[in-house]
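ERR on first pass: missing label on line 2. Operator R.T. fixed the label and resubmitted. Corrected input:
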Amino acid sequence: MDRNKKYWKPKSNLWFFLAVTALAAALATDVLVPNVQETDTLYYQAVLAASIAVLLILFGIPVFSSGLGGRLYHYSQFIAAAGLFLTFLDLLTTKSNILKLPFFPGPARIVEVLFTERGMLLVCTAHSLRLFFAGLAGGVVLGIVTGVLTGWNRQWNYWLFPVIKVAGVIPPVAWIPLALVVFPSSFYAGIFLLTVASWFTIAFMVSTGIASTPKEYFEASRTLGADERYLLFHVAIPNAAPNIFTGIVTSAGMCFMMLVITEMIGAKAGLGWYINWAKAWASYDKVYASIVIMGVAFCIILAVINVFRSYFLRWQRGIVQ
Amino acid sequence: MIEIKNVSRTYSDGQHTEALRDVSLEIRRGEFLSLTGPSGCGKTSLLRLIAGLDSPQDGELLMEGRAIDSPCHERGYVFQQAALFPWKTVEENIAFGLRARRVYREKKRLVGEYLSLVGLDGFSKSYPHELSGGMVQRAAIARALINGPKVLLLDEPLGALDAFTRIELQNVIREIWRKTATTVVLVTHDVDEAIYLSDRIAVMTPRPGRISEILTVNLPAGRDRDSEDFIGLRRTMLRKLTINN
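pass 2 clean. output:
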C-alpha cells in the first residue's frame, strides 16, 4: 500500500456513519439517562449535536469527494472511538457517580465550565499566551544571536559555548529561587524563566547548524566573490535554518511546561494559576477545563510555528517528509 | 596568463603527504588545458592552488603578474559535487555571484542568458534536489560563468555522471568555451575527455605530484572520437600513464 500518503485510512462510508452514530450514541445517552451528579448538560448536548451537524453538512456538500473528504474519512475511526469513549465516560461519571465527585466530574460538567467560566478562562489564557510569547521570543532572539556567534566565531565559541552547554543541561526550574528574588514582579520573573528554558536549546542547535555547514559551500561562495559577511548571512545561516526550527519547536515545549510551573508558584493570573486556585476550592471540573484549553492552545501554537517552518524551509519539500 | 613557478605543497594533518613537488606550468590566455593523471597525483591540489583556495609552501602562482593569494570571482571554480546551495532555486544559485558582489544591474537578463547557455531554460524555479546530476552540473557551470571569469577551473565536474550525460556535457563545455572565449583548466582522469576537449594536456605523476609531460592536441575543432589521430593519441597517453605508474 501507499505508505507515503498522509490520509491513508480507507475511504469508507461505513466508518463515517459509525463515527456519526458513536457521537449520536453519546448524545442519546446523555439525553435519555438521568443525571446522578448535578450538572447542566445542555452545553455538552449542544456541542455533540453541533459536531454531528457539521459532519453531516460536510458529507452533504460536493467538495466532500475531493481533498476534505479524504481527511474526514481518515479521521472517521478516531471520531468513532472518541464518541464511544465519551459515552462510557458519561455513564461512569454524570450518570452514575461510579467515578466520584469532586475529583471526576463528567464530560458534560467540564463543557459546562468551559462555557460558564469563559470570561475568566479567556483572561487567563490571554495572560498565559502573553507570558509564553514574551518568554519564547526572548529565548529565540538570544538563542539565535548567541548560537550564530558561537557557531561562526571561534573566539566567541571559546568563551560562550561551554557556558551554553552547561546552562543547557540545568533544568530551568532550578532558577526559580533566583528569579523570584531578582525580578520586581512575577511577570518579569516568568519571562526570565521561559527565556532561560528556551535560550540554550536554540543556541545549541543554531551553533551546531552553523558549524556543520559543508566546507564546499564556503569555498564555492568565495570563488564567486562573497565576503565573510555574505558567507554568514547567505550560506551559514540558511544552512542552519532547519536546525533553528528544530530548536524552536523543542524549546517551545519546554517553555510551555515552564509557563505552567511559573504560573503555579508566583503568578496572579494565567492558566497555571487558575489550576492552582481551582484545586484549592476542590473544583476539579475547572482544573480539567483549563487542561483542555492548554492542550488546544499548545496545538495551535505548534501549528503556527509549523506554518513559518514550512514557508522558510520550502526548499526541503521532497527531501524530507 | 597564469604562471605556476616551482610550486610545492605538503599536507601534514595526521600523516605527511607530499601532494605536489616543484610543479611549474604556464597557462595561456584562451586555451583549454587539461590536468590529468592517476588518482592521488595532486591534480585537484594544483587546481585549488590556482583558485586561491589553498596556498603553497614553496614557489608562487601568478595571474597576469599578480600573486594569487585568495579566491576571486575572476577564477570561477566548479566542484566535482557541484556544491549548489540546496535552499536556493537554480535561478538564485546562478545569481549568487552577482548578488554577492552587489552587481544588481541587468541581473535578470544575465541569469536568463546563462540559463539558456547551459540549456536549463524552464528550470529556473526548481531546487537542486529536483534536478538530475547532469543538470546540477550545468547549473554549477552557469553559476561560475555569470561572473565573467577570466579562467574557469573545472574539478572533475563530470566525474560522477553516466556515460551519456558525460558526452552531452562535454559538448556543452566545448560550446561554452567557444562562445565565451574564456581560459579553461579541467581536471579529469578520463583520457578521452581530455583529448576531446583540450588544446594541451598536462600529464601528472602520482605522489609526489609533478608534471611529467605536456601534450599538445593538434586535432581539428569538430573532434571525432573514432578518428585515427584520436585513437593514436589515446594510445600514446594511456602508455604514458601506465609507465608513470
